[in-house]
């Protein structure tokens, strides 16, 4: 398949009622944020959920956090908690008061041992009937991770988790149902973001955020209830960031 997101959006524009998954074992035209290519060899999971929610347009971005919480929960169940090691680039998460192998990286990645294991891409488009279609694309490195990236990436196979893409999809679909019910057409956004925050990588660590106007460095304080990254800069100002590329640890301190 070229792109599950493209297939899902085509269905939305053709009048599909939504709540439909589009999944593939390989994508030839996968993409990530800002139109970046995302490699997906055969055996990895590419899945897109198309929805036409009955929720205020301003709250639809919360679905990205629903997807993050659902994917994080699914992967945490699949990957054993044993043999925990320090996260690459200072990106450990926490669970039960200790380190967690699986953590959420703002705004749309899932990390395992600090390396990228999965990514999420949220796209929206107005349909001919005036309603907004949302496509939530999810890619999981099941059998292999892309090489030559400017950041570390890993796969379930590398982590010693013997699961195939259908098993990962099944776990994801189950988690999605639970998290979507909590979201409740936007009424439960704060509950979802609180769950996201509890699994966030890098809170309290040095962070560098690449934005269109340059790089902001400081301490990653929290995610606010609107889903913004809150960074405290060197002068003590708390800055809310709606979009940007995040780097932790050593990378964050490079000048």
How would you describe this structure in keywords?
single chain; alpha+beta; 13 strands; six-stranded antiparallel beta sheet; globular; SH3 type barrels; BirA Bifunctional Protein, domain 2; nucleotide-binding; ATP-binding; 2 domains; 255 residues; five-stranded antiparallel beta sheet; transmembrane helix; Transcriptional_repressor_C; EC 6.3.4.15
Q: According to CATH, what is the topology of the largest domain?
A: BirA Bifunctional Protein, domain 2
CA radius of gyration is 18 Å
Quote the average pLDDT.
Answer: 85
Give the biggest sheet: 6 strands, antiparallel
Distance between the termini: 41 Å
Q: Estimate the helix proportion, in percent.
A: 10-25%
Estimated share of beta-strand residues = 25-35%
The CATH homologous superfamily of the largest domain is termed Bira Bifunctional Protein, Domain 2
Q: What is the total number of structural domains?
A: 2
CATH architecture term of the largest domain: 2-Layer Sandwich
Strand order of the largest sheet: 1-2-8-7-6-5
Low-confidence stretches: 81-90, 92-98
- Helical stretch count? 5
Annotation, overall tally of beta strands? 13
User: Class of the largest domain in CATH?
Assistant: Alpha Beta
